[in-house]
Structures are given as C-alpha cells and as structure tokens.
Amino acid sequence: MRQVRVKGFKIFSDRHGKMRCYHRKTGHKIDLQKAPLGSAEFFAECETIRAITEAQKAKAPKAGTLGELIKSYIDTEHFQNLAAATRRDYRRCADFLEPIKDTPVHVIDTPLVSGIHDKAAEKIGWRRANMVRTLLSEVFRYNIPKGLIMSNYAKDVIPKRRPRGKTYANRPWSIEEQEVVLSHAKPHVRVALALMMNTGLDPSDALKLRKDQIDGNTIWGVRGKTGEEIAIPISPTLQAALNRIPEHEAETVLGNSRGEAWTYNGFSTVWHRFKTALEKEELIASGLTLKGLRHTVATTLREAGLDERRIADLLGQKTPSMARHYSRSANLADKNRETMATLEKEIERRTKTVKPSAKSVKPDQNEDKA
C-alpha cells in the first residue's frame, strides 16, 4: 500500500493494524470505509473538513473585539449557572450584536453603548433593548478583572422606559376571573392553577415541583430563576385542591391527563386553548397569563399591607425591588387614605399642644399700615 500524506491530517495504523485518519486541529475523523485512503472520495472529504474549519475560524470572534468579550462572558461559570430562559434571552441579544462583533475594544465607550441601546430600541423594542444593555453590562463587568476592558461602559446608560399608555404584561387576575377559570377547568388543569394561585410559584417551578418537596404542611424548594430558597406553608385552600389531585405515577406533584409529568410547553398549550375558549364565550377578559398569577399573589399581599421584603421572601426574589415590580398595580387607595387621616390627626394634635411663645415676633406695624 502506497503511503499517503495530507497536510493537517494524521494518518496511522492502530494497534489492531487498522488504518485511521483524523484532522489534527478539530479531531474530525474520516471514515476510511466510506472514503478509502488515497481515493477521490478521501481527498474530497479532506477538502470539506478544511473548508469547514476555515469558515469556523473566520466566524470566530477576533482578539480585542466586542465579539471576544461576549464569548469570554458566555464561557464563564456565571453565565452557565443562569436560568435556561435567561441564557436564551442573552444569546438572542448576542445575535442582535453579531453585525458589530468586530468592533475594537479600544473604541467602546458609554456614548457608543448608548447609541447601540437606542438602535436596539428602534429595531427590537424597548424591553429587549434594555436586555441588550444588561447583557453588555454583564459582559463588561466580568471582563474588567481579566484586563480585557477598562470600565463598565453600559452602567451609566439609562434604561428605556415603558412607552406611555402601553399596558403591563402579566396583569393580576381579579377574584371573579380566578373563580371562573377554576370552575371551568378540568381537574388536572384546575389543581395546577390552584397551586400557582395560592403560592405565587413561577409556572415552570410549579410544574416541576416534586412530591418529595412537600413535607407536612410546607413546600420546600429553590426558585429556578434566582436560585433562592423558598419555604411556602400550605394553606387550607391549597390543601383542599391538592387533596383532589387525580392519582398518577409521576414524581412531580402535578400530572397531565395521561398521568405523566407536565412539560412547560405542554401545559402552556393546554392553557392557551382553554383560555381562548373562555374569552370567546366572554367569560373572562383578555390578557390573563400564567405568570399573572404570580403578580396576583404579590398584589394581594401588598394591598393587605405586607412589606416588600416579606413578599420577596415568599416569591423567592433576591431583592424587594422585584416584589415592588410584581405588586405595582396594588390598589393602595384605602390604606393611603388611612395614612392621610393619621397624618391629619397628628398635625391637629401638635397644633393644639404648641403654645404661642412669649418671644414670638409681632407683625410689623408698617405692614399693617400698608
């Protein structure tokens, strides 16, 4: 057999005497059964591997560019530990930034990032533009210690505000809407909705909740998105709903009509069809979402007078600011009315207790004459 050599490829005989071939840089193996060594098929396969390698090399971010910074951040353990939905959103933002990935690091500054932010708002909307800003802030923050960039140039870029008049997503449900939905839902759907209504669990966390996470009258777990621990007492209302769960063999608390664990997409599909049918019958208004139940719990607690820290602890939020976000539509009119009444009473009390001072300044006589 004549010896064949191809630059960039290792061709050798293994310990069993069988010929092998692989590309040194990528490790890509060539099947010598389908493309015999030295044949036209073999050399064609070598050229294909070379072409793919060169294309990938050209696509890879260049050193000292925005693309390299983004890749460096995506390779961090911090990024890998983010919730799957957050990683997906960040990758979409990175795709938006793909056309400017070769921007040299030395030209990046706050005005440039602000311009990118403005352009993103025009192209993909204010919400995703703010996410692009957040991604860049994280990219810069994690690359500063590596010496790849000098400062976090996204930090001082002001986030875009929600357009005036635009309705909020995931609005809270009214009591009437909750009752209508529960009364019309099938048993395996009803208990899932009841679990979300009475705990504030994120839909994905509620569907993944395992039976062994319920100990006595408490739900123990970790919120998927933030990693925060949660401990939720089971109320009598929720316990009554759990007692009516159809029997199933899944390890999760909730199960679908086949007795299997729900997938998020599966439940979302069932919910959408069910909700649409109720809307057509005009039994509910449009705009109900599963995440809206989380906002409902926060709003209800806020209206009941609970502080943001306690609400955040229940929802598994790291900061009270997120609890404030979830309860932003709370109707505080009654409580604020009580607050104002208290303020007036206190002002009146202080007015009565303060006696005129003997050293008080008398009105200027000239002013009286005027």
Question: Can you walk through the features of this model?
Answer:
- α7 packs antiparallel against α8 (187-197).
- The strands form 2 sheets. A 3-stranded antiparallel sheet has the order 3-4-5. A two-stranded antiparallel ribbon has the order 1-2.
- The longest helix has 21 residues, at 333-353.
- Helices cover 50% and strands 6% of the residues.
- The chain has 16 helices and 5 strands.
- The protein folds into 3 domains: 9-59, no CATH class; 66-143; 175-326, Orthogonal Bundle (hpI Integrase, Chain A), CATH 1.10.443.
- The relative contact order is 0.06.
- β3 (214-215) and β4 (218-222) form a beta hairpin.
- The chain starts with 8 loop residues before the first strand and ends with a helix.
- With 370 residues, it is mainly alpha-helical.
Secondary structure blueprint with pairings:
Elements (H helix, E strand, L loop, with lengths): L8 E5 L5 E5 L16 H20 L6 H9 L2 H4 L3 H13 L13 H15 L1 H18 L31 H10 L2 H11 L5 H6 L5 E2 L2 E5 L6 E5 L2 H8 L20 H17 L9 H14 L4 H8 L4 H7 L6 H21 L11 H5 L1
Helix pairs in contact: 2-6, 4-6, 5-6, 7-8, 12-13, 13-14
Please report the number of helical segments: 16
Order of helices and strands: EEHHHHHHHHHEEEHHHHHHH
What portion of residues is helical? 40-55%
CATH topology of the largest domain: hpI Integrase, Chain A
Q: What oligomeric assembly is this protein in? A: single chain
Q: Which homologous superfamily in CATH is the superfamily of the largest domain?
A: Intergrase catalytic core
State the distance separating the first and last CA atoms: 124 Å
The CATH level-2 architecture of the largest domain is identified as Orthogonal Bundle
Strand order of the largest sheet: 3-4-5
β-sheet strand percentage? 5-15%
Assign the CATH class of the largest domain: Mainly Alpha
What's the pLDDT, averaged over the residues? Answer: 85
Biggest sheet overview: 3 strands, antiparallel
Shape: extended
